[in-house]
Design brief:
There is one protein chain. The chain is mostly helical. The N and C termini lie far apart (38 Å). Helices cover 78% and strands 0% of the residues. It is built from five helices and no strands. The chain is elongated, with a radius of gyration of 18 Å.
Length: 137
C-alpha cells in the first residue's frame, strides 16, 4: 500500500512542479511580448491609454510572479535557480520593484510624461537583467 501511495504521490508532485514551470514560462513570454509592444509604441510616439494598459498588465504579472515559485517547483525543465528558495526575500523584492516601476510607467503614459516613461521603461529592462543574472540558471 505504501508503495502504491509513493508511486501516485511522486508523479503528482512532478506534475504540479511542471504546472508552475509552465505558468512561469507563460508569464515571462507575456511579459516579453508586452515589453516589445511598449518599446514599439514608444518608438512610434504612441503614448496613450493602450500603452498605459500594457504597463498595468506587466505590473499584474510581476505581482503574481513570486507565487509561481513554491519550494517544490524546481524539478523538471526549469531555468529558475534554487537560489530563489534561499533568497526568497530578495527575489520578492525584485518582483515588487518591477511591479512598482511598471505602475510608474503606466502613470507616465497617462500623463504623457515622456522623460519619466523612457526612464521607467529602461528601468524595467534593468530589473529583468538583474533578476535573471541572479536567479536564472
Amino acid at each position: 500500500m505504501l508503495r502504491l501511495l509513493i508511486l501516485i504521490i511522486f508523479p503528482l508532485n512532478l506534475l504540479l512542479a511542471n504546472d508552475y514551470i509552465l505558468q512561469r514560462q507563460d508569464s515571462m513570454q507575456k511579459f516579453n511580448k508586452l515589453m516589445r509592444s511598449a518599446n514599439q509604441m514608444i518608438k512610434n510616439s504612441e503614448i496613450n491609454e493602450d500603452l498605459s494598459q500594457i504597463y498595468t498588465d506587466i505590473e499584474n504579472i510581476m505581482i503574481e510572479y513570486p507565487t509561481l515559485f513554491p519550494d517544490d517547483s524546481f524539478k523538471g525543465k526549469t531555468k529558475a535557480s534554487e537560489d530563489i528558495i534561499a533568497n526568497r526575500d530578495k527575489f520578492n523584492e525584485i518582483s515588487l520593484e518591477t511591479a512598482e516601476i511598471a505602475k510608474l510607467a503606466s502613470l507616465a503614459s497617462l500623463n504623457n510624461d515622456i522623460e519619466l516613461l523612457q526612464q521607467s521603461h529602461q528601468n524595467l529592462f534593468s530589473t529583468c537583467k538583474s533578476c535573471h543574472s541572479r536567479f536564472k540558471n
